[in-house]
Automatic annotation (TrEMBL):
<dbReference type="Pfam" id="PF01625">
    <property type="entry name" value="PMSR"/>
</dbReference>
<comment type="similarity">
    <text>Belongs to the MsrA Met sulfoxide reductase family.</text>
</comment>
<dbReference type="InterPro" id="IPR050162">
    <property type="entry name" value="MsrA_MetSO_reductase"/>
</dbReference>
<dbReference type="InterPro" id="IPR036509">
    <property type="entry name" value="Met_Sox_Rdtase_MsrA_sf"/>
</dbReference>
<feature type="domain" description="Peptide methionine sulphoxide reductase MsrA">
    <location>
        <begin position="3"/>
        <end position="153"/>
    </location>
</feature>
<feature type="active site">
    <location>
        <position position="10"/>
    </location>
</feature>
<dbReference type="GO" id="GO:0005737">
    <property type="term" value="C:cytoplasm"/>
</dbReference>
<dbReference type="GO" id="GO:0034599">
    <property type="term" value="P:cellular response to oxidative stress"/>
</dbReference>
<dbReference type="GO" id="GO:0033744">
    <property type="term" value="F:L-methionine:thioredoxin-disulfide S-oxidoreductase activity"/>
</dbReference>
<dbReference type="InterPro" id="IPR002569">
    <property type="entry name" value="Met_Sox_Rdtase_MsrA_dom"/>
</dbReference>
<dbReference type="GO" id="GO:0008113">
    <property type="term" value="F:peptide-methionine (S)-S-oxide reductase activity"/>
</dbReference>
<protein>
    <recommendedName>
        <fullName>Peptide methionine sulfoxide reductase MsrA</fullName>
        <ecNumber>1.8.4.11</ecNumber>
    </recommendedName>
</protein>
<comment type="function">
    <text>Has an important function as a repair enzyme for proteins that have been inactivated by oxidation. Catalyzes the reversible oxidation-reduction of methionine sulfoxide in proteins to methionine.</text>
</comment>
<keyword id="KW-0560">Oxidoreductase</keyword>
Length: 165
């Protein structure tokens, strides 16, 4: 099992999208890369903590290799928009890929380098080692599962039927 942290705007949609994929074992939404201890949603929303909304994804790399996971990630984000996804604006909604292993860093950077050839605008997705992660409040966990029809900027239908659990 491996972990990666994905920032792609509001974490509710990112989590719901990845939870439906074969090979994803668990998700936890939370706050990553900031500069305070135990941030709250209200603090993160001020844009002053340095945190971004992230989804921690635990996955089986034998079933869902990192490159395939990255393909899914880039399906649901606009990688050329800084500090915004859909209607969500602010530094807490920036895009980012946060890893633990340097091998993953190389895979991510090579993937983005190839992907950049498809864009005229610069890809602005952060790629950094995960420095800190704090799970979000309970009401954020599996939010769209608990709140059918709840807000989501991610098109959950982008996962093909053969890619779903």
């Amino acid at each position: 099992m491996k972990k990666i942290w994905l920032a792609g705007g509001c974490f509710w949609g990112v989590e719901a999208y990845f939870m439906q994929l074969t090979g994803v074992l668990n998700t936890v939404v939370g706050y990553g890369q900031g500069n305070t201890d135990q941030p709250t949603y209200q603090q993160v929303c001020t844009g002053t903590t340095g945190y971004t909304e992230v989804c921690e994804v635990t996955y089986d790399e034998k079933i869902l290799p990192l490159e395939k996971l990255l393909e899914h990630y880039f399906r649901i984000i606009d990688p050329t928009t800084l500090n915004r996804q859909g209607p969500d604006k602010g530094t807490q909604y920036r895009t980012g890929l946060y890893y633990l292993l340097n091998d993953d860093k190389d895979v991510i950077n090579n993937f983005i380098k190839r992907l950049q050839l498809q864009y005229t605008d610069q890809i602005v997705v952060e790629v950094e080692p995960m420095k800190c992660f704090f799970p979000a409040e309970d009401y954020h966990q599996k939010y769209l599962e608990k709140t059918p029809g709840g807000y989501c900027h991610v098109n959950l239908g982008l996962a093909k039927p053969d890619e779903r659990k």
